[in-house]
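Replying to the earlier thread about multi-chain prediction with a worked example.

Input:
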Amino acid sequence: GAVVSQHPSRVICKSGTSVKIECRSLDFQATTMFWYRQFPKQSLMLMATSNEGSKATYEQGVEKDKFLINHASLTLSTLTVTSAHPEDSSFYICSATRDPNSPLHFGNGTRLTVT
Amino acid sequence: RKEVEQDPGPFNVPEGATVAFNCTYSNSASQSFFWYRQDCRKEPKLLMSVYSSGNEDGRFTAQLNRASQYISLLIRDSKLSDSATYLCVVALSSNTGKLIFGQGTTLQVKP
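Result:
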């Protein structure tokens, strides 16, 4: 069964609204989770590294004020797309691992459509 | 230049065929290498890690050439269920979470 749960799997929202995506590790504690974005026919791109109890580390070109990440517990990280615009429409996927030497588990992804 | 480059394909092959995918990476400091499989509109799933000595898992064989910064995946006796996009993935450190994904190579296995 799934070891990383992501919710919602699909969301459609209007331009200007904010959307929160949750990523949960189900049977292990994840001090670090990762958020990726994938546009159609393109590769997954790492957006940020979510660290439990501290600020997220964002990749170059990713606006931290636009994509708010909160990792308040060892099993939950949230990504909030603030004031979403149509160009934010994408497939967002989280991942988590027990430790750096263990396999990475991906959530099932969230397909965001901003109209 | 992309950090991880793959031929996007699609590769259209008949059932039972042998097909090979190649991937190159630009950062010589890369530490870990993987092949992931991604089905349409789904999350990627780990197919296999790639080791320096090469490794095999059933019908799948992965090779790594550090000198040429080149990774390959060979699929023997292709099945219809092998149809998917295969992602070449590189990690710059032992922290396997921070991964660099290739664009993916699409495989279509035809009956």
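Chain B is about 0% helix and 55% strand.

Feel free to reuse this layout for your own posts.
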